[in-house]
């Protein structure tokens, strides 16, 4: 606790995920005053065919 | 906003996902009176081994 | 199956939720060819202080 | 209803998932007094690069 | 890890939630061979007006 | 896109939520190279009776 779930389009590198986890944990610890160990982060990679915005699949956007 | 997350068994076509996003966005815009751009939809495909109903995996159902 | 989770700002009426569930179920049944009974929909109402966009809380937007 | 979503690291066998669904459904039915058919369980397998704890990716832990 | 999210209709007692957490943790530890401390469970109570099945709000069912 | 869902125990102030949204958006924009407008954050406040760890409700911890 706190738990953080991140949905983002596939294609980000492991290095980006490493940095994202580091930076978000830092922000949560600073603001919420919990221990780093309490912060759990789940990342879910999405295919463009599985994301829709304004009624259109991301896979269909030019 | 609104965000919609859809869990369904894998196997649906991109065409079905395209139509699902179109139809659900249309319904939300009509009822909630928001703009189409505000409606974000995430689809997650599930393997039959990852879905259980009445204590039984879908992968085990005849 | 399919399960649908809808996050939206608080303040919508029960009548809007009733119509949203009806319309989304209809769309899913038409497109995914499942039974209406298979479609489960969860709605979560959000306070403006619990939603952030572009780094700003909705509660802080004029 | 009730719906249960389980996030866990990838690598568990179908047999473990089968047993997990059986045992959790049994627990929910006993405690909440609902029918087994009402209990729906979704399992999501996570890659170690998609899970962070204490600011560190699981993929980076020795 | 594992994380478990439970959506269920409001109205269950704290005693039922206590027992549910105990029983589910026990099941997960037995099957997945993780420590009890690794198992995190979130329960979300739902209003009948926020749950739809077969196109109908639970609040509207007799 | 990206969407971020944060589950944390109730009791944090609006000021903490404001700062959390600001800091997390900043981190995501820096690392994932998306626009601030693309980053959506949902916060869910949890009652201690709705959170279990190691088989015990947080509401029962001394």
UniProtKB/TrEMBL annotation, chains A, B, C, D, E, F:
One of its GO terms (molecular function) is isomerase activity. Residues 2-57 form the 4-oxalocrotonate tautomerase-like domain. The active site is at 2 (proton acceptor). The keyword Transmembrane helix does not apply. Coiled coil: none annotated. Its EC number is 5.3.2.-. It comes from the Bacteria. It is an enzyme of class 5 (isomerase). Keywords: Isomerase. InterPro entries: 4-OT, 4-OT-like_dom, Tautomerase/MIF_sf. NCBIfam families: PRK00745.1, PRK02220.1, taut. Belongs to the 4-oxalocrotonate tautomerase family. This is Tautomerase.
């Amino acid at each position: 606790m706190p738990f953080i779930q991140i949905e983002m389009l596939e294609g980000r590198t492991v290095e980006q995920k490493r940095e994202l986890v580091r930076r978000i944990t830092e922000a949560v610890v600073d603001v919420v005053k919990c221990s780093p160990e309490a912060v759990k982060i789940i990342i879910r990679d999405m295919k463009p065919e599985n994301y829709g915005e304004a009624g259109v699949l991301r896979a269909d956007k030019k």
